[in-house]
What we know:
about 250 residues, alpha/beta, Rossmann fold, Arc Repressor Mutant, subunit A, 2 domains, disordered C terminus
Amino acid sequence: MEAAEILVIEDDYLVARTIERSLKGDEFHTTLASRGEKGIFIARQSPPHLIILDIVMPDMDGYQVCRTLRADPQLAKVPILFLTARVKPQDRIEGFKVGADDYLCKPFNVDELILRVRAILRRTRKPAPALAEAAEKGGTSEPPPHCIKLDDYLLDTRSFELHIPGREKIRLTPLQFDLLYHLMTHPGQSFSPNRLLDEVWDYPSGRGSPDLVRVHIKTLRERIETDPAAPAFIRTVPGKGYSVGSLPETGDQG
């Protein structure tokens, strides 16, 4: 596989150079941008495989940059990793709400950064799933071949859009799509946060925080549930984790 193109949008030169040195070699090709607007321009000229994004920057903050990228059809599916000194839980939640796939705090461990970058790239650069088989698992009605249907939810695997009767279609972020796709292709099964870190995030056992999953589930519910405080589709199964659909549980429960 060709080297992964990684765009680093970071106004601190020393931090940017540290990231660049950490991601050197045949596996990665890194481009640096010191301002948000410049990073957006570079991304539009040549969409990267991954964007590493700071939050605190002088012209546009990282939240604004992320919203702009997610609103651009050409860049909406590019995964984004926030790398920032903003460490409060609310900062993480806001980062995921605007469309980040992952969030790493400064000062950062180089090995941890490389692990997360590789995990994101494995997940986003893997071959497309077998849609026909997934659609068959997803419900009783016959959806289009590129869609998965479960209950009243129709997930379009080409556009990353979720269709719900009576509501406008919802464009999901790459990580939100992967998470919902995994749940919808295993209807009725329960997935613990640690199991989702392994199967969706592709993190090795014991790496990654279950809070990462919980925050993404929370933000996903806020986007798709009629009442996020009493979710009807993405259910919490006490002692087991999360499940979607109304089918009885089968197989490994995690």
